């Protein structure tokens, strides 16, 4: 069966809602062994930024700042806007609309979503943000999967490490002799770069990850084997 391969990756940042940020930080609870108020206050102050940054991993609170994707062997496209504060809904709509326009359902072509840790993170995050922002996704987008289905999803992390194990994209790249990610950017640096006005650098990083995922997928499916 022929495939409509969609290689993709997203980059996310913490919540931009002041109300949510305040609520999360005001409800920090230190470990039970902290008894002295001075120690409790110090722990809370230390963890305020940590807990805030972690909202970038939560689709209910965080925000998508770019989506990189490529169809089959086409060039990678990255959807992002310099005005990242208010562009998330437009990013999702653009991504969904392009997929709907490009994919024509038929009996011999299956949409295949390909990425690294997409089952547990990227697809889930997109699904949650679509709900929050009231953006209708394509009917063929495999959102809220109850079980892994490799007819529609190829998750390179699951394929490489197994269902319950973890392997970074860099780890898989190194194992396969593919150039690893640059040290200049990683997921933990995305928010700082965005705040510094370097959204283009984040978009380039996202595009590079899509290219790496495509190379990994071809290796894992023996497309270039001799």
Keywords summarizing the entry:
8 helices, alpha/beta, 226 residues, globular, five-stranded mixed β-sheet
Structure report:
With 226 residues, the chain is an alpha/beta fold. The protein has one domain: Nucleotidyltransferase, domain 5 (2-Layer Sandwich), CATH 3.30.420. Helices cover 44% and strands 15% of the residues. The chain is built from eight helices and five strands. A five-stranded mixed sheet has the order 3-2-1-4-5. A hairpin with a 5-residue loop joins β2 and β3. The protein is globular and about 65 Å long.
Summarize the structure.
The protein is of the alpha/beta class and 226 residues long. It has 8 helices and 5 strands, in the order E-H-H-E-E-H-E-H-E-H-H-H-H. It has helices at 18-26, 37-53, 88-102, 118-133, 156-161, 169-176, 190-195, 199-220, and strands spanning 2-13, 63-71, 77-79, 109-115, 153-155.
Euclidean distance between termini CA atoms: 22 Å
User: How many domain modules?
Assistant: 1
Question: CATH superfamily name?
Answer: Ribonuclease H-like superfamily/Ribonuclease H
Round the mean pLDDT to the nearest integer and report it: 91
Strand content: 15-25%
pLDDT < 50 runs, ≥5 residues: none
Which shape, going by the Cα principal axes? globular
Order of helices and strands: EHHEEHEHEHHHH
Q: What is the level 1 CATH name?
A: Alpha Beta
Chart the SSEs and their pairings.
Layout: E1 2-13, H1 18-26, H2 37-53, E2 63-71, E3 77-79, H3 88-102, E4 109-115, H4 118-133, E5 153-155, H5 156-161, H6 169-176, H7 190-195, H8 199-220
Parallel strand pairs: 1-4, 4-5
Antiparallel strand pairs: 1-2, 2-3
């Amino acid at each position: 069966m022929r495939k409509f391969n969609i290689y993709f990756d997203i980059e996310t940042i913490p919540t931009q809602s002041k109300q949510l940020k305040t609520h999360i930080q005001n409800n920090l609870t230190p470990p039970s062994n902290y008894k002295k108020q001075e120690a409790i206050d110090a722990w809370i102050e230390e963890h305020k930024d940590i807990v805030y940054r972690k909202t970038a991993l939560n689709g209910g609170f965080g925000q998508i700042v770019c989506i990189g994707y490529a169809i089959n062997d086409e060039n990678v496209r990255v959807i992002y806007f310099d005005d990242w504060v208010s562009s998330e809904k437009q990013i999702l709509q653009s991504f969904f609309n392009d997929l709907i326009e490009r994919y024509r359902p038929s009996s011999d072509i299956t949409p295949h979503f390909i990425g690294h840790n997409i089952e547990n993170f990227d697809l889930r995050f997109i699904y949650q943000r679509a709900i929050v922002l009231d953006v209708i996704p394509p009917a063929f987008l495999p959102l809220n999967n109850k079980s892994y289905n490799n007819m529609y999803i190829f998750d390179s992390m699951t394929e490489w490490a197994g269902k319950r194990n973890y392997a970074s994209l860099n780890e898989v790249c190194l194992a396969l002799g593919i150039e690893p990610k640059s040290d200049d950017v990683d997921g933990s640096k995305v928010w700082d770069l965005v705040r510094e006005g370097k959204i283009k650098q984040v978009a380039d990083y996202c595009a590079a990850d899509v290219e790496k995922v495509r190379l990994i997928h071809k290796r894992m499916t023996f497309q270039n084997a001799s």
